[in-house]
Design a protein that fits this description.
Helix content is 36%, strand content 13%. It contains 15 helices and twelve strands. The N and C termini lie far apart (52 Å).
């Protein structure tokens, strides 16, 4: 089954049950096991099936299977948000006294999670230069548990040297985690380039209309080969006393997502609602065609901004003079670069005036919506960063981020033209 068909059909057998064309919404917290023996078998993993919706749910199960296949992975686990996906991916391998290595170009919420919140858990974050991964290897030591980066960063719109990152990670036997939210699974599949774990905020392009919070963690095939007999990840080889001595590397199921489900989601509880999983399934069906429209609209807007006298810089890999244009053509399907761009004007005051003068663009801190959005990152999504952190992340006070929607591109250009004149 090819990709566009996977997005519509994979993981659901409509010949079972009532034969509904749409995946049913199993809006329930619990399930009747029918007998004590079946209940015991489910909890012991002798049988697989729904136990409790915090752990698994039939609607969510279809979404996980479908998304994993679409992203090129072998298994997935859905979470309540994108931040929950990132948090669970990290703490699945790191504990107090360990460290992680993170990209210098990450979403602000991810930066604060890694450098502040996880610090309180005793996990240190080291920052590497991601464009060329020039200092990555020197930051890795015996306590390093993962390397985290974004395939297309928010809001810098930069593309890392993914091949070099993966090469170094494999050499040092360190897990790689790629946040693929902005590029989307429709345009780029990091697993095809050797990445181990892919995370998404499915609240963005997957749902497509800003209607549902969600996240997902996707595991590549044969990840057990990295985790098994690796001193960095001994807990995957040792009995988990919290789950009757289960050894994740010996179960015969994808171990990374299995441990997230049984040891983390079980205890922390950041599970998605079945209704949100159903909404995300609807979005996944049209993701491919929407991403093509988002990308084409954004390129037109980027070209307009690039030629405008009030604009001092435009960041969008689809532009031929972009530093990242060659990487975009190498990595992304048909060179399509998603719907996020950023540009700079001459001052903070001008940026504020532009944002406040748009009529079609909404001042919202989401991305990936069908409707176009305008944001000032330095005072909103990245406000919690210090001046040095903002500077190091390439976020200036005059930077404006756009999430280009599915409107007519001429209307969007007219709206920005008016705003830039004010």
């Amino acid at each position: 089954m090819k990709r566009d068909s996977i997005a519509l059909h994979y993981g659901y057998d409509k010949t079972k049950g009532e034969g509904t064309m749409a995946v049913p919404i199993y809006q329930t917290t619990a399930y009747d096991f029918g007998s004590s023996e079946k209940a015991a078998n489910l909890f012991a993993l002798k049988e697989l099936g729904p136990i409790y919706t915090r752990l698994n749910n039939p609607t969510t199960d279809v979404f996980e299977q479908r998304f994993a296949k679409y992203e090129g992975g072998v298994a997935a686990i859905a979470t309540s948000s994108g931040m929950a996906a990132i948090f669970n991916s990290i703490v699945n391998v790191a504990k107090a006294g360990d460290n992680i290595v993170i990209s210098d170009k990450l979403y602000g919420g991810t930066v604060t999670l890694c450098t502040h919140t996880l610090k309180r858990f005793g996990i240190e974050a080291k920052v590497f230069e991601s464009d060329e991964a020039s200092n990555l290897e020197e930051l890795i030591d015996d306590k390093t548990k993962c390397i985290l980066f974004e395939s297309l960063s928010n809001p810098q719109i930069s593309i890392p040297n993914i091949e070099k990152i993966v090469q170094i990670a494999k050499k040092r036997r360190v897990l790689t985690i790629c946040d693929n939210t902005v590029a989307s699974a429709a345009l780029f599949n990091p697993i095809n380039f050797g990445v181990d774990i892919v995370v998404h905020s499915t609240s963005k392009y997957t749902t497509g209309q800003g209607t549902a919070l969600g996240g997902i963690i996707v595991e590549r095939e044969n990840l057990v080969e990295l985790l098994k007999d690796n001193p960095r990840y001994k807990h995957f080889d040792e009995p988990d006393e919290s789950y009757h001595g289960l050894v994740y590397n010996e179960v015969g199921l994808p171990p990374f997502t299995l441990r997230v489900r049984l040891a983390l989601i079980r205890d922390i509880g950041c599970a998605p609602s079945p209704f949100n999983s159903w909404l995300l399934l609807q979005g996944l069906e049209t993701l491919s065609i929407r991403m093509e429209k988002h990308s084409k609209n954004t390129l037109k807007v980027a070209k307009f901004l690039e030629a405008h006298p009030e604009v001092t810089n435009v960041s969008y890999p689809g532009l031929k003079n972009s530093t990242y244009h060659k990487k975009a053509e190498q990595y992304f399907r048909d060179g399509l670069c998603s719907g996020l761009l950023s540009f700079e004007v001459k001052s903070f005051e001008k940026a504020k005036k532009v944002i406040d003068s748009t009529k079609i663009f909404s001042v919202v801190v989401n991305i990936g919506d069908s409707k176009s959005i305008i944001t000032h990152p330095a005072s909103t999504t990245h406000q919690q960063l210090s001046e040095d952190e903002l500077r190091n992340a390439g976020i200036s006070p005059s930077l404006i981020r756009l999430s280009i929607g599915l409107e007519d591109s001429d209307d969007l250009i007219e709206d920005l033209s008016w705003a830039l004149k004010q």
